[in-house]
Design a protein that fits this description.
Strand content of chain B: under 5%
Helix content of chain B: over 70%
Oligomer: heterodimer
Number of strands of chain B: 0
Shape of chain B: globular
Radius of gyration of chain A: 43 Å
Number of helices of chain B: 9
Number of strands of chain A: 0
Radius of gyration of chain B: 19 Å
Structural class of chain A: mainly alpha
Helix content of chain A: over 70%
Strand content of chain A: under 5%
Distance between the termini of chain A: 76 Å
């Protein structure tokens, strides 16, 4: 015995699109004869009705207040995490610095005179270098003052002042904390 | 969406908690309903709905106002619930033991409460037969009248995938419905459903 093929009828029953008149008639004829497809058709109709008429459930009263409390708790958790992270960084930095200082200061404890002489030598060298640089800069400045006319000097200073103001405003905007309205 | 909601949205995008709270008041019901239908548990649904709004609040700056807000919100809720279901898949929970949501607001009489509970139970059994994504698609389709395109957008699916999933889900629920009915021809239907539907 050949089993009836229900697949096309099943597809038609599940199809959301409209069937042609001929298809509808064929389907109706099949449903009149086929108990299986008729049961499916009825079940689909019942399920559709059941779902479409099912109510939309509401949460318990005070949902918004609970959410605000949760938001606050979430912020607090984030703040604590950030504080902990900063603390760990600070302790790590301090330990690194102390270790470095201990390594640098160890020779001073062992032979203070040698270190003192080295420091004096370094200071003298630095001062000599700074004096030479200063003299060179002064020479350049004297030359430039003579070459550039006063109007151009005014323009340069105005531009520098503008850039300084721009830098200050940008710094203010970037470092200002984000405002949260509660 | 009306002008007031648009204004709340604009303020919420600037971090205004009060404006976002107004949006929660408006959309708490559909979000909670989706979470409940997905998770089958009032406590989990409350938690998921709260988490949905928290994630939405944190992502408000990234929200594109040209997109419908409810679709975006339900998309967050559906993805969160799908993740939750996958996480707890290992734990076997009997649907008989799960608590019912608080129905007292809309159902004052005891008969009405019983009737609503029976309705919830029937719906729960039907939705239980579906995969998490199919369940989300069915909830959006039947409860919120979302179009295929909107479901696809919310669940990150193609149009054909949405159609295919809804087709499969409706068949699965119809089979479950037949199985629940104490009538003749059950064995025949089961055979038909499983042997004659190679696609499923």
């Amino acid at each position: 015995m050949v089993k009836p093929n229900h697949q096309p009828f099943e597809n038609w029953l599940l199809s959301e699109g409209a069937l042609t008149q001929e298809e509808s008639q064929t389907l109706q004829e099949h449903l009149n004869d086929c108990e299986t497809c008729r049961m499916l058709s009825e079940a689909l109709r019942d399920v559709d009705r059941e779902l479409r008429t099912a109510s939309v459930l509401s949460p318990a009263p005070g949902f918004v207040s609970r959410w605000q409390a949760r938001l606050e708790a979430d912020r607090l958790r984030l703040y604590r995490r950030q504080t902990f992270f900063i603390m760990i960084l600070s302790i790590g930095g301090a330990m690194f610095l102390l270790t470095w200082l201990a390594i640098v200061l160890y020779p001073l404890i062992q032979s203070p005179m040698v270190v003192l002489l080295a420091v004096v030598y370094e200071l003298t060298s630095t001062l000599t270098f700074a004096t030479a640089i200063g003299e060179a800069l002064m020479t350049v400045l004297r030359t430039v003052v003579g070459v550039i006319p006063p109007t151009q000097w005014a323009a340069i200073w105005t531009a520098l002042a503008g850039l300084g103001a721009l830098w200050f405003i940008a710094l203010q905007r970037l470092t200002r904390p984000r405002r949260i309205i509660v | 969406m009306n002008d007031t909601e648009s204004s709340w949205l604009a303020q919420a995008q600037k971090g205004d908690v009060e404006a976002f709270s107004r949006l929660i008041e408006t959309y708490q019901r559909p979000v909670y309903n989706l979470c409940y239908r997905m998770l089958n548990d009032a406590g989990d649904a409350e938690d998921a709905a709260q988490e949905t709004f928290l994630r939405a609040y944190k992502s408000m700056k990234r929200y594109d106002q040209s997109r419908p807000f409810p679709t975006w919100l339900l998309s967050i809720a559906a993805h969160y619930c799908i993740d939750q279901i996958r996480k707890r898949r290992m734990a076997i929970v009997s649907t008989e033991d799960l608590p019912y949501p608080d129905l007292s607001d809309d159902a004052p009489g005891p008969e009405s409460v019983v009737s609503r509970k029976e309705e919830q139970q029937r719906v729960r059994v039907l939705l239980d037969t579906l995969s998490p994504t199919d369940r989300a698609a069915v909830v959006m389709y039947y409860w919120y009248d979302f179009s295929y395109e909107e479901i696809g957008e919310a669940l990150s699916l193609t149009l054909s995938a949405v159609k295919s999933r809804l087709h499969r889900a409706r068949l699965s629920m119809a089979q479950e419905w037949i199985d629940q009915q104490p009538q003749a021809g059950l064995a025949e239907r089961k055979q038909h459903g499983k042997a004659q539907s190679p696609a499923f």
